[in-house]
């Protein structure tokens, strides 16, 4: 099998991942992809066929990332995401789906998901999404982003727009700038170049803003979209 670097040093602990899918074959396939294609740099902590068991595992041994199937009997991926994100040490959650994300993007974000992974993605793409979300990079494909932006602009009460702008205005100028650039889709490296600061400082600005707003990076991006800010000169 192929190998994909996750850009982690050899002396670092592997990224731990949990998988939830009601199809045991999908669980097995994802375990093989995550462990074999990452050359051991990703370790599968658990692979469960129902959300309740996965949440139990995650509450005792929190993984770094959970891949949660969107459509499952009983508790679906959205509710599982919500409960996982409420844990004392919450994992990053990526929605695992073979379906188009239509009608699920906004619900997934509200529950705390940070992106989508398609079961039909190439193994190297799945590995990269898992590694990148650990670095704070949301994993929404362009179609998902366009849908979310369109929905927000179509259903945008003036009061919610003003509230979002007020929340952003309350941030220090450099934190606000970093949050806005991240919401526009720029990576930490690209933001550092635009703001003439280190990537570490970019991460510090975004982390500080997240603490002040009590939001994750994806939720802050949604806040920026809701604010519907005028184009920057």
From TrEMBL:
Q: Which SMART domains match?
A: HTH_LUXR (SM00421), REC (SM00448)
User: Which SUPFAM superfamilies does the entry link to?
Assistant: CheY-like
Query: What Pfam families does this protein map onto?
Result: Response_reg (PF00072), Sigma70_r4_2 (PF08281)
Source taxon at top rank: Bacteria
Specify whether Transcription regulation is a keyword of the entry: yes
- MF (Gene Ontology): DNA binding; sigma factor activity
Tell me the ranges covered by the Response regulatory domain, including all copies: 16-134
Keywords (A to Z) from UniProt: DNA-binding, Phosphoprotein, Sigma factor, Transcription, Transcription regulation
Q: Which residues form a coiled coil?
A: none
Per UniProt, residues of the HTH luxR-type domain are 164-228
Q: Which GO terms describe its biological process?
A: DNA-templated transcription initiation; phosphorelay signal transduction system
Record bears the keyword Nucleus: no
Q: Which residues are annotated as modified residue 4-aspartylphosphate in the UniProt record?
A: 69
By sequence similarity, the record places it as follows: Belongs to the sigma-70 factor family. ECF subfamily.
UniProt name for this protein:
DNA-binding response regulator
């Amino acid at each position: 099998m192929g190998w994909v670097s996750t850009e982690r040093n050899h002396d670092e602990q592997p990224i731990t991942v949990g998988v939830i899918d009601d199809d045991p074959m999908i669980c097995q396939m994802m375990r093989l992809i995550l462990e074999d294609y990452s050359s051991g740099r990703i370790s599968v902590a658990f692979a469960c066929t129902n959300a309740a068991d996965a949440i139990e595992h995650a509450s005792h041994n929190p993984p770094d990332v959970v891949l949660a199937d969107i459509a499952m009997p009983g508790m679906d991926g959205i509710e599982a995401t919500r409960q996982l994100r409420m844990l004392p040490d919450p994992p990053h959650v990526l929605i695992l789906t073979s379906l188009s994300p239509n009608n699920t993007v906004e619900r997934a974000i509200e529950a705390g998901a940070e992106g989508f992974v398609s079961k039909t993605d190439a193994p190297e793409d799945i590995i990269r999404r898992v590694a990148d979300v650990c670095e704070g990079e949301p994993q929404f494909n362009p179609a998902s982003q366009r849908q979310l932006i369109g929905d927000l602009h179509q259903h945008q009460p003036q009061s919610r727009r003003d509230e979002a702008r007020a929340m952003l205005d309350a941030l220090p100028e450099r934190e606000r700038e970093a949050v806005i650039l991240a919401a526009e889709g720029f990576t930490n490296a690209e933001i550092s170049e635009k703001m003439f600061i280190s990537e570490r400082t970019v991460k510090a600005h975004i982390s500080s803003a997240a603490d002040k707003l009590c939001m994750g990076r994806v939720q802050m991006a949604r806040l920026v979209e809701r604010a519907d800010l005028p184009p920057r000169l």
